[in-house]
Amino acid sequence: MTTAGGELQPTEEGIEDAERARDELRDALRVAGVKLPSLSLDAVSCAGTAPGVLVDLGRCNVETARALAVALRREAGR
Q1: How many alpha carbons lie under 13 Å from residue 31 in its C-beta half-sphere?
Q2: 31-51 residue pLDDT tens
Q3: CB 3.0-4.6 Å disulfide test: which of 16, 55, 64, 69 passes with 60?
Q4: In terms of C-beta density within 10 A (0-12 exposed, 13-18 middle, 19 or more buried), how is residue 48 classed?
């Protein structure tokens, strides 16, 4: 979608695609035993003129960060 000023804004389809990507990531993390409690879409990129909608990985505690690191290392070792 283009604003009156000619700037591009994310379309509903782009937002839905980002939601699917977020859900796929959440499911993959769940299988790896990791939960990012703040995993979401970046609201500013959904409403602004960014080239695409961003998935916000959010904040997590130290335990979750270490669990994510273990899961990534395990996958990289395959």
Answers
A1: 8
A2: 999 999 999 999 988 887 667
A3: 64
A4: middle
